[in-house]
Design brief:
The protein is an alpha/beta fold. The protein has a single domain, classed as 3-Layer(aba) Sandwich (Glycerol-3-phosphate (1)-acyltransferase). Helices cover 37% and strands 17% of the residues. It contains seven helices and seven strands, in the order αββαβαβαβαβαβα. Strands 1-7-6-2-5-3-4 form a seven-stranded mixed sheet, sandwiched between helices. Helix 3 links the parallel strand 3 and strand 4. Helix 1 packs across helix 2 and helix 5 crosses helix 7. The protein is globular, with a radius of gyration of 16 Å.
Length: 210
Amino acid sequence: MVYPIGKIIIPAIIRPWIKEISGLENVPKKGQFIVAANHASYMDHFIIMCTLVPYLDKKIHHLAKKEHFDNIFKKAWHTYAGAIPLDRQKGGKETLRWAIKALKEGKIIAIHPEGTRSMTGKLQRAKTGVARLALISKAPVIPVGLIGTFEILPKGNLIPKAKKATMNIGKPMRFNEYHGKRITKKILREATTKIMMEIARLSKQRYNFR
């Protein structure tokens, strides 16, 4: 059994804010994969965690900006939760290497392709890190669309509102057509757009950045 806080306590706390979870059957019970979700709220991490950790009985390793590890209390929590520090100033190369190694070991990585929380709740142009990780590791991507988390806890707010969110989980995405090819900026952007288009569909939004 994985950490009890992630499997029992957090789900019990977060459940009142969850309206519906759909597509859980799309999540593989075995093997490594990458969870890719839109990001509009701190609530996103908790909803993903309290849904997938009990279902899989495994930790979900989120990529988190390294600033979350500067404070001793935040560092303790993020380390316990299995978060991976991401240095955005350096382009995240060290984090990418760690994530590839973790996937090869059968761990599960969760990433928000947009890189930071949306200020409006709408999808932003995604960075290509998720595509690079998927192409190098050859791990499938599980797209996730979160609806309503911005209304619960938008950026800048500390107290969640009494609203409910929906989590829609899509089918695994594989990128066999790119395997064996040199990873170029064009390929990375194409794969990223495919992932974000599916996230947009699942979150009932539009993604117009290519």
